[in-house]
């Protein structure tokens, strides 16, 4: 029997863009047909985008999705296709339609509904009960939806129904531990069932979630036959040989750098680009302080959008160092962004003059420091409004965790690229980005983030000779404790038993718990760890549990 050719659409299908998504499917089906594919495969909830959330509660939205699928079926013209969509039958199902010969020939429903982490499938969908198998050019193809492959039973039912090949359509979000786990699951299912596995994943940013693509081919014996690059939109061609149940990728794109830092950086760039573009903003604005967080944020913004769409503003105060002034200017000039300097001193003094009658008799404290940050926030928001450029917040996960950030000050912004990136990771990413700049240019002195900014002691520069370590443990220690408490859900006793100072652990955990109210008011940002604040980690603000 001749090989079965598949066209796998590793692309972005934005949430709510029903007509545009259907048009993209139609165009990709035409490309698949021209490339002599017999089966075109599209991601989970292709038509609605993923996750559509409460759009699924609107009958008009569900009807539009169904109409789009019906129209696509009429355009198959000899091609067969698997397309994800929300299927309403009184109840709503996460579905995959098998299109062939001008009709919707089969519809299968997602059986395993995830309700953990970023997933809320049980809020919207009812579980399916059966596994579908379709015949394509004489090959029996089972098809499943995302979480189904993480359970043994759906794949086993496909194999029992005679499947030789199992296609899995996915909207699986990226985090830094995900890809190895995916491969292990697919290898296990292949060995259990004796079926080859095609794993097609969505790519693109959607609010706080970033989908990486990184689609996979696994042969029936469990060998990985193909790995698509992460964060790359591509129509992936593959041939399935039913004689030995093997898959063969055809000219798949490859990644230049597959290091952890390269993939994380790509995730952040994709998150920024898609958030800005999908929400219709012409560009972004950020406060460039001369520190490492804003320096990395500026590099991400330029890589995501191009320098012509980025504005950076330095807002010095009497405590701003010459190193900060020089670093911000040099980076802005080197990256070619629109750059401005606005002193906050006169505005800050006006605030202090207005407030002094009610501040009388009280010693200066963090109030005056926070007022500097809030002065900057007011100015940045005004510039954002006036110029229609979305404001990026520059804070990192370490700061968000312990509340080392000012509400309505440096927390101002509509999107926070580093929200789920620990400070120690900010350093690693900054050094990686400079190394990448040198490799690309061939100039060993090149940089995207000033080396002096990376190497300096971190400081908010809200008082003389201030450093972050005046208020916080060293970041290596802080981040290690935070990761154990947040990602691993370890108790304070467990963290102390692992060798960390008891007083430091109690202090850090207290800061995490009492600052939940701040995090609830923070901007969204791309989820890149296994326990991101906001959509994934949801603790009560008011709680007696310590």
UniProtKB/TrEMBL annotation:
The UniProt annotation places ATP binding at 287-294, 394
| GO MF annotation list | ATP binding; glutaminase activity; NAD+ synthase (glutamine-hydrolyzing) activity; NAD+ synthase activity
Every copy of the CN hydrolase domain together lies at 4-242
Record has Amino-acid biosynthesis as a keyword: no
Q: Name the positions where L-glutamine binds.
A: 116, 172, 178
List the Gene3D superfamilies hit by this protein, alphabetically: Carbon-nitrogen hydrolase, HUPs
> Which reaction(s) does its UniProt entry say it catalyses?
deamido-NAD(+) + L-glutamine + ATP + H2O = L-glutamate + AMP + diphosphate + NAD(+) + H(+)
What Gene Ontology cellular component terms go with this record?
cytoplasm
Catalytic residues, chain numbering: 44, 110, 146
Q: Which GO terms describe its biological process?
A: NAD+ biosynthetic process
HAMAP family, per this entry?
Answer: NadE_glutamine_dep (MF_02090)
What is the annotated role of this protein in its UniProt record?
Catalyzes the ATP-dependent amidation of deamido-NAD to form NAD. Uses L-glutamine as a nitrogen source.
User: Which family is this sequence assigned to?
Assistant: Belongs to the NAD synthetase family. In the C-terminal section; belongs to the NAD synthetase family.
What is the protein's given name?
Glutamine-dependent NAD(+) synthetase
- List the source organism: Dyella dinghuensis
Source species taxonomy: Bacteria, Pseudomonadati, Pseudomonadota, Gammaproteobacteria, Lysobacterales
